[in-house]
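sorry for the late reply, my laptop died twice this morning and i had to redo everyting from scratch. anyway the thing you sent over, i finally got around to it. pasting the sequence first so we're on the same page, its 292 residues, then the predicted structure underneath. double check i copied it right bc i was rushing
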Amino acid sequence: MLRLLRSDLYRLIRGKMMWMLALIFVAHICFMTWVEWFAIQTFDVTEFGLGAESAPLVDALTGQLTQSLSLSMEYGTIAISGGFLALFASLFAALVAVSDFSTGYIQGLFSARQGRASYFAEKFLLFALYTLFLEAISMLATYVALRVAGFGFASIDWPVFLGWCAVAWALACGYAFITACITWLTKSKALGCVTAVVLATSTIGGILTGIMLLLPSSDAAELMEAIIDWLPFMSQNTLSSGETSIANGKTWTSMFTSTSDMLALTHILITTGVMWVISIVTSFIVGTRRDI
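ok and here's the structure:
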């Protein structure tokens, strides 16, 4: 497995794909930072029904807020909200998975199941490492871009912050694993990329929400609410609020109902764990037994 990983890393580092995806992600972060800076610079109190005499007070409050930003909340808003971290991690997984078919690499694997198992194990490890790379470089880009724009940050509670980063990484890995699994089973680059976009951008959640609103039965609507509540995009939306979303024993709050007794962290970890188990077990059971 380590031999396969070294081979993949050497090929990807010398190639363009992983760097292009990371560059586009960083460009997105820089653009969103500019949008935030521009919105603050062009803010006009009179447009919100406030008198001109309120401008000094508003400017003072705005200045205070922009110098005490939460790095996790800013990163969550820019990179996690909307599914961008999950999207780029999933696109990488789809493109790597399908490239092994187009190059004939996967057909040259050992016929024994052990060889196939090593291949899948190495690929899941590769996707996890690249997701970690994406999160680290995009977090650094967020910090640098906001600093250059003149923003400041509040002090960081490192244990909580790193824990939040780990949970966000695990959830993004789940998206990448599901996408890779579907790409392997279908051998389709188009379907793999579509899966990455549809899952990461919460398209399924939006469709189900629309269906729920049309349901005439309250029981059916409650069932649909429960299903939507456990979709990955709900955990993604929660994490986009930053480290406070899982800190200090905060309980889970769904989109439709009041706060539950379950901890938000527990809910997110269960959702993430299910994604990992489904994708890994399916790949190892089906992928090692069929001619892919």
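The longest strand covers residues 259-263.
thats about all i looked at so far, will dig more tmrw
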